[in-house]
Here is the input.
Amino acid sequence: MATSSSSKLNKAVKQQYMSLPQGDKVQAMYIWIDGSGEGLRCKTRTLDSEPKTIEELPEWNFDGSSTYQSEGSNSDMFLIPVAMFRDPFRQDPNKLVLCEVLKYNRKPAETNLRQTCNKIMSMVENNHPWFGMEQEYTLLGTDGHPFGWPSNGFPGPQGPYYCGVGADKAYGRDVVEAHYRACLYAGVQICGTNAEVMPAQWEFQVGPCEGINMGDHLWIARFILHRVCEDFGVVVSFDPKPISGNWNGAGCHTNFSTKEMREDGGLKVIEDAIDRLSKRHQYHIRAYDPKGGLDNARRLTGRHETSSIDEFSAGVANRGASIRIPRTVGKDMKGYFEDRRPSANCDPYIVTEALVRTCLLKEEGEEPRDYTK
Here is the structure.
């Protein structure tokens, strides 16, 4: 099993230094999405005191030419703090700081999808849109081979691994437990976790979160997972189909509801929203992975608990549909629905924005509406 050289360093020696007092100073790790739209970057600065609000955090900058975000001749990009969490690695009073990225002209970077999402969410705040996202992922060795798989072959076929228990069924539970506790410490709205259908594949759920908080909390949960995996010497992949063949892919099923959907008679509102979604399938497919649908084309085949990427479908308790209405929602006549199309490597900002545009702002057609005009 290939693990990183860093993970083999003596952690007890590191702890000797981490236990030293830091006085009144605070370490703030600034985190941002790079030019790939999938990768995360981070760097740390010292603050003179513990910040209590986002407004107390200073703006910062970085070299965008080294993150696929600018030319070397004009490389300064701005980091604008937007959300703050406790740091589970350095612990209190230190902070994790999620940032938006602005270009030299103060306009959002191409992969800064948060700014538009925030504007859209502010337009529907009275509807109280709630989201819950189910983040699937795969653990890999540093050689790209799935964690725990035989070096020259495959494990037994799918069947015993989903929610499995035992060394021959659950591959890498230490990573999962460490990530869960780190998220709780940080203040991430993580609400559950389970082993998935393919061995070395897992899932964690974040939510319910209202509006822009969904994207903020999922991105920080992903960052924490990357860091936990770094400590264990393994790699986390959010690729929607990391292993070809008869193995499940990885998605980011998105549960959505509004105040009206959660109230008595809400099933009618849910059905109306699904009808709107059915007429805008291609717009959503383009929004649901960073490559405009190309990544999801490998996953949404109509097999392995997925719908076909070419067709829209909906059904009660149907995991082979684009949209699933949970059986309890059909029985209670109110609640939420699950959009099963987003890929594991989706940007939650554009996924949640797309759902609000179609279901609440009642947009039609294949392009999002520009509300600045």
Notes: The chain has a mean pLDDT of 96.
